[in-house]
Amino acid sequence: MPVLSSVEGPVLRAVEACAEPRRSGPVTSTGSVRGLSAAIGKVAAIALNTFRETVRDRILYAILVFALVMLGSSTILVTISVGGEEKIIKDLGLACISIFGLLIAIFLGIGLVSKEVEKRTLYTIITKPIHRYQFILGKYLGLVLTLLVNVLVMALGLIGLAYVWEGTASPRLVLAVLFIFLELVLVTAFATVFSAFSSPALSAIFTLCLFVAGHLSADLRLFAAHYGGAATKLLAETLYFLLPNLSRLNFKDQAVHPLAIDGGTAALSFVYAIFYAAALVLAAVAIFQRRDFK
Amino acid sequence: MKRRHLATPLLLVVCLLGSILLAALLERRGAGATVREEWLFLPEAAQLKPMLLGFHGVAADLLWIQIVQYVGTHVETDMKFPQLSKALELTTSLDPRFLEPYRLGGLFLLYFARQPQAAVSLLERGAAANPDRWELPHDLGRYYYLEVQDYDRALQWWERAAKLPDRPDYLPRFVARLYARTGQTETVLELWSELYRTAQNDSVRSLALQEIERLKAGSSKGLSGL
Q1: Which of A47, A179, B72, B90 could form a disulfide with A142 if both were Cys (CB 3.0 to 4.6 A apart)?
Q2: Can you tell me the distance from the alpha carbon of A218 to that of B9, in angstroms, rounded to the nearest whole number?
Q3: Which among A272, A87, A100 has a CA at the least distance from the CA of A179?
């Protein structure tokens, strides 16, 4: 019998509390509503416990403190520049949020499932009245919540700095941070997929590769259009639409320079990120459901 | 037992001191200078930009800070700037909306590197990339007015700048004077005073001050009217 960690106890209690009573009769609309609310309750319980578990991780604090120090140090860096101080502070701040958010997403995301398997705590959880999709969804949402809190802390630091430096905080900056968060939501979804079937090290490598590929997909298409034959062009075109187009979520330039943001493009990019992340989580669920833990 | 406890911190201190000593020795042998060799190879922006994974704005900032240091070092030493134009081109290609490399870079190229063609080309690229900003046509007009006394071209750029939002109040006055072909001394003095007032670089400010003093002493060349 595996020993329960400090997290599994609350998870199991919460899951059991939300567990729907076993019924043999026909499913009524009241019953399905009750079933849905029970499912949401289980997902929420796992998400909250994942959040509690990740915020206890020391690496998270190390990354967060380092990010805040880097944000602060941008004020030192601008003293050796001539002009463009506001731009440099915003650029560095947004890059900090993006890079350190990516580190958090990868470091925590890759162990999402594999850590449970490694510690053998997963075996205790899957014996409970909980669907595997609920487990994956809860884990993913818990990590997204952790990321949200971290991005908020870093964003407040950046907005505070921008306010001190410029006397105002542009709403564009908030929008850029929102899209950085969406990018991290996507990266976390990738990490969850890989975590569902691979080791943490391999998951980290795969996730990082997809992050890079996601930023290069447009260039890949351009390259094929210039130098490739028909087959290469077709392959590049397929990859372009298949890979996550992370450059669509990059609004840093618009935040730093007073550039107009097309509302329609921003809205479409937002929905695109949500759809892509949903597809990835579903893929993670599909993989996890097929895994044999005997 | 006590000896064993002392061994680790002692070794740590020895290693730390050793590494500092070795770093100092390497510095004396000029190894540091090899690393600091300035921009032997600057990549093309088209090749570099995809590798930056969306962080091209930060890359442009960091390169700009390096350019400022590079100019500062060479102004104090040999006044040679072989890679300045290329570095500015790379910076502005990475972030075409970053105005300082065009504006200050143009001044560096013009007054320190003595490369007027490169300065004009840089400013023209900036004006094309930022058609809504008054600063770059303004600077181009200043170049044609002060440096080559091509008043028609100066008028052309200033007229363009005067139509753009947030332009300084003096621009319509300059345009009017150019049309009337009067007030050249005042315009020159105002231009240098404005540059002195807004310059964020000590070298540029001292250059502007020199010109103002020269003008006030009445020894400036080419002030005999149009």
Answers
A1: A47
A2: 53
A3: A272
Residue B61 near residue B78 (C-beta atoms within 8 A): no
Dihedral class, residue B164 (left if φ above 0, else alpha if ψ from -120 to 50, else beta): beta
How far apart, in whole angstroms, are the C-alpha atoms of residue B134 and residue A87?
18
ipTM of the complex: 0.75
Helical H runs in A78-199?
A: 85-109, 114-118, 122-126, 132-166, 171-195
Contact A83 B50 (CB under 8 A): no
What's the CA gap between A259 and A61, in Å, rounded?
Answer: 35
Predicted TM-score of the model (pTM)? 0.78
CA distance B53 to chain A (A): 5
Residues of A in contact with B64 (CB under 8 A): 81, 84, 88
Tell me if chain A has a CB within 8 Å of the CB of B103.
Answer: yes
- HSE-CB at B123 with a 13 A cutoff on CA atoms is 26
User: From A85, which residue of chain B is nearest by alpha-carbon distance?
Assistant: B61
Tens place of pLDDT per residue across chain A (294 aa): 333 344 455 555 555 555 544 444 454 566 677 778 888 898 999 999 999 988 888 778 888 888 888 888 888 887 777 778 888 899 999 999 999 999 999 988 888 888 888 888 888 887 888 888 999 999 999 999 999 999 999 999 999 988 888 888 788 899 999 999 999 999 999 999 999 888 899 999 999 999 999 998 888 888 888 877 888 888 888 888 999 999 899 999 989 887 888 889 999 999 999 999 999 999 999 998 888 776
Best of B44, B47, B55, B61 to mutate (most A CBs within 10 Å, chain A):
B61
Identify all chain A residues contacting B104, using CB atoms and an 8 Å cutoff. 82-83
In the numeric block, which tokens belong to residue A103?
């580190």
Candidates B49, B53, B200: best to mutate against A (most CBs of A within 10 A) is B53
Interface contact A92-B201, CB threshold 8 A: no
Sorted by where each begins, the domain ranges of chain A are 38-290
List CB contacts (< 8 A) between A246 and chain B. 54
